[in-house]
Specification:
Elements lengths: L29 H8 L5 H12 L1 H6 L2 H8 L3 H10 L5 H13 L2 E3 L2 E3 L11 H22 L2 H12 L4 E5 L2 H15 L4 E4 L2 H8 L7 E5 L6 H12 L3 E6 L5 H4 L3 E4 L10 H4 L1 H18 L1 H14 L15
Helix pairs in contact: 2-4, 2-5, 4-5, 7-14, 8-14, 9-14, 10-11
Length: about 325
């Protein structure tokens, strides 16, 4: 996995999260490539990229001068931005945006333009279609770009680990907790940490037989980077899950797993990243369970039996006193 430079809002500045390789244009959509490349671009090109990401459907219909004005740059800067993405010119960028978001997407019976803004008059049916389409597209693009060799390495390490730590701050903590629950359920000693003090003290006790997994969409959350780095300094195998393969978090990880996202109104990048993150970690979890096939079956049976007396039977709920 290629390592790169640190995003401008990365380590040393604090803050919470929540906040495929760009050399290969076949490894995901143009929007995915823009998100991955954005931290490494010069400031002026970043402004163009942010404008494209915030309103791809608008860019699909705008002239180069309009996009330059909206991003506070010049037409020459917009052209340089296109070339940085290996696109011949602005016309190709407009076409890519039209293909990705300006054109209606047919998913699960809905015809939805996921690039448009949500309006106060939209019906619940329209909202349902837009959210569903955006999430399905994000998961599909994540699946298309994921490095299965990295999943294999991570699964091998977790399956044989003496202990697994999972780190996440803010919204990423919810994703980290979900992974902890899955691994714990099949008998792998696993803890999740959203407090940096607890995470660092726990990381200090790790060794070469242990694994640390960190979740951060931006890969720039200082506390998450610090915890994973501390785990790595103790010899643990470190795994990063992020949308930015050249981020600070990826820089300190042995294994990097990446996600793609599709933002919608009221669901900015960090919130839109949840389902792709869960999908990747589900894949990792199932791969780990597969490697411990017999032990996994026994553990799932035992844990199901442990709570069976707390389940309602014959349609009647148990009265609690």
């Amino acid at each position: 996995m290629v390592r790169g430079t640190v995003p401008p809002d990365a380590p040393g500045h604090g803050g919470s999260d929540d906040h495929g390789d760009t050399e290969n244009s076949d490894n995901g959509s143009v929007l995915t490539r823009i998100r991955a490349a954005l931290p490494e671009l010069p400031a002026a090109l970043q402004r163009v990229g942010e404008q494209v990401l915030s309103a791809p459907a608008v860019v699909a219909r705008a002239t180069i001068l309009e996009t330059a004005e909206r991003s506070g740059t010049s037409a020459a800067t917009v052209t340089r931005f296109c070339r940085a993405l290996d696109l011949p010119g602005y016309a190709d960028l407009r076409l890519a945006m039209a293909e990705e978001t300006g054109r209606s997407s047919a998913v699960a019976g809905w015809e939805i333009d996921i690039g448009r803004e949500i309006m106060p008059t939209d019906s619940l049916q329209e909202l349902l279609g837009l959210i569903t389409t955006a999430d399905i597209r994000a998961i599909q693009e994540t699946a298309a770009q994921i490095d299965l060799a990295e999943i294999e390495r991570a699964a091998d390490a977790v399956a044989s680990a003496g202990r697994v730590e999972v780190y996440g701050i803010g919204g990423s903590a919810l994703v980290a907790d979900s992974m902890q629950l899955c691994l714990h359920r099949i008998g792998i000693p696993t803890w999740s940490w959203s407090d940096v003090h607890n995470g660092l003290t726990s990381a200090a006790l790790l060794g070469t037989d242990d694994v640390a997994i960190a979740v951060s969409h931006s890969g720039a959350t200082y506390e998450t980077v610090e915890m994973l780095s501390a785990a790595g300094s103790r010899g643990a195998t470190t795994v990063a899950l992020t949308s930015f393969p050249n981020s600070a978090l990826a820089e300190v990880a042995d294994i990097v797993l990446t996600t793609a996202i599709h933002e919608t109104t009221f669901r900015p990048d960090a919130l839109a990243a949840r389902h792709p993150q869960l999908m990747v970690l589900d894949l990792l979890y199932v791969a780990v369970a597969q490697r411990r096939y017999d032990a996994t079956g026994v553990a799932l049976t035992l844990t199901a039996q442990a709570v069976s007396s707390h389940r309602a039977s014959d349609g009647n709920t148990k009265e609690h006193r």
